[in-house]
Design brief:
Order of helices and strands: EHHHEEHEEHEEHHHEEHEEHE
Number of helices: 10
Structural class: alpha+beta
CATH class of the domain at 82-166 and 243-332: Alpha Beta
CATH architecture of the domain at 82-166 and 243-332: 2-Layer Sandwich
Helix content: 25-40%
Radius of gyration: 20 Å
CATH topology of the domain at 82-166 and 243-332: Alpha-Beta Plaits
Oligomer: single chain
Distance between the termini: 28 Å
Shape: globular
Length: 345
């Protein structure tokens, strides 16, 4: 199913999303610092003053309604496997069919239409660079469209949660230079194969993951804690969807900045209010831009107003730029850095 994200829908507030304060806190407070214990939902229930069954029921409802994508890890790009942002030029009258062909690849975790000649943008995550290149070749062959790949070079501020209270945010540590992907053990791969789709919403979810992965509950918990300590997992918790929370306008803003200035400007941009993600990517022959940020708002007007303030504050007005608003969401899920396990149960 696709979803319109064109900013033309009536502005909505966040109030309809939350049935009560417990719903709000469940979505806002547990995007990070999720309890890594045998019964995490019981621990959350104690914090919220509700029952464990109530927490599970709320999360199931929020997931079914689309507000929650999953509960689980956000893996750090470049620390495991291989990934890239990519784009293609699809004939507008064939966009749906081409988007469906792209989304059919399990390695695709985000797939959006955007307002530009390069009108389909997607993220590919694979176990290694060879598998990544294979997926891109297949997409070129299947669609017959030009495709560009824009791998991450520097992450200035990347996915540590979406503050719903407007009280601030957690910034990620800037990571410069090439990063050698971690080599995972067989046990780690087995846990990742199960966990990358998200925790099952049951009383003892880590035991359930362990049962599917063929390891103990304690090994699953120790593995996740170790991944967080090593920076393989950037955060573990509730993953929300912006659109369902009322942020219907989603703009990818890009600039062509000289290489000797991009890091200083990137750090400044990352610190600006309203910037949700900020990173440097490789250029492509047909795409000269190297500095990116994401801005979400209730409508396009709000995003453009926020962007104008950011551009003035950061001194970005002198550089070539593009603003690409999302118009449709074709796919959004967690990255699959490990092939899904074949289940026989």
């Amino acid at each position: 199913m696709t979803m319109l994200l064109d900013g033309r829908a009536p502005m909505m507030t966040l109030k309809p999303v939350f049935s009560d304060e417990a719903d709000f806190r469940l979505l806002n407070d547990f995007q990070r610092d999720f309890p890594l214990v045998t019964r995490p939902f019981a621990r959350i229930a104690t914090d919220l003053g509700v029952t464990e069954a109530g927490v599970l029921s709320r999360l199931n409802g929020l997931r079914e309604g689309g507000t929650v994508s999953r509960v689980g890890p956000v893996f750090s790009p470049r620390r495991i496997g291989a990934s890239t942002l990519a784009a293609l030029k699809a004939p507008p009258d064939h966009l749906d069919d081409i988007a469906a062909a792209v989304s059919a690849h399990p390695e695709i975790n985000h797939n959006y239409a955007r307002e530009h000649a390069w009108n389909l943008w997607f993220v590919v995550a694979a176990p290694d660079a060879v598998a990544l290149a294979r997926v891109l070749r297949e997409i070129r062959r299947e669609t017959g469209c030009p495709v560009i790949a824009l791998p991450l070079r520097v992450e200035y501020h990347i996915d540590l949660g979406f503050d719903l209270a407007g009280k601030g945010r957690t910034t990620s540590q800037v990571s410069y230079g090439p990063v050698e992907p971690e080599v995972l053990t067989d046990t780690e791969v087995a846990v990742m194969q199960v966990l990358q789709a998200g925790l099952p919403l049951v009383s003892r979810p880590f035991a359930s993951v362990g049962n599917s992965a063929g390891v103990s509950e304690s090994i699953v918990l120790a593995t996740v804690r170790d991944w967080i300590a090593r920076g393989i997992v950037k955060r573990f918790g509730v993953i929300v969807r912006h659109h369902e929370l009322g942020y219907r306008a989603n703009a990818m803003c890009v600039w062509d900045v000289p290489d000797d200035q991009v890091d200083a400007l990137g750090e400044r941009l990352a610190a600006a209010d309203g910037v949700n993600l900020c990173y440097r990517r490789a250029r492509a022959e047909a795409w000269p831009f190297n500095l990116y940020c994401m801005i979400h708002g209730h409508d396009q007007a709000a995003v453009r107003e926020q962007l104008a303030t950011i551009v003035a504050q950061c001194g970005l007005g002198r550089f070539p730029a593009e603003v690409l608003f999302s118009t449709r969401r074709f796919k959004q899920c967690g990255a699959r850095y490990a092939a899904d396990r074949v289940r026989n149960d």
